[in-house]
Amino acid sequence: MGGYAAGTGATITVTDLVDSQIKEKFDSYPDLVRQSLLRVRKAIMAVARQDKLGAVEEVLKWGEPSYLVKDGSAVRIDWKPKFPDQYAVYFNCKTSLVETFKEIYGDLFHYQGNRAIVFQLSEKVPMPELKSCISMSLRYHKIKHLPLLGM
User: Fold this and answer.
1) Yes or no: domain 15-140 corresponds to CATH 3.40.50.720
2) Dist. CA 10–CA 1, nearest whole Å
3) pLDDT digits (tens, 9 = 90+) for 21-57
């Protein structure tokens, strides 16, 4: 299965971050966390390009890096010192996104209620499946009426 293990592969840097607040936020994370979250950020940007979704708005929302495109639902990413060995990809809890992910992917992911997919820093991330979840979120308002969000 595709994906990556945290801490392996080439180092990703924050040099492509334009917004100083976003750069500061990524700089505040421990190294391994920063690398993991930058990989997720890279996946978000790749999905937006691949799906031809237009410009990605990257802002801090509730102190967390947040990514949004027109007609989409935001994807947020963050790490909490209270849970130092994990990080999460957050989705709007007022949508059917996480419930749909559970239906499609079952126990492939670890979920936090109806709002997040949680990863351990040491685990291999199933990147194709995560990108599918990101795509559903970024296209949500166009696909929310479809069974299983069109999957």
Assistant:
1) no
2) 19
3) 889 999 999 999 999 999 999 999 999 999 999 999 9
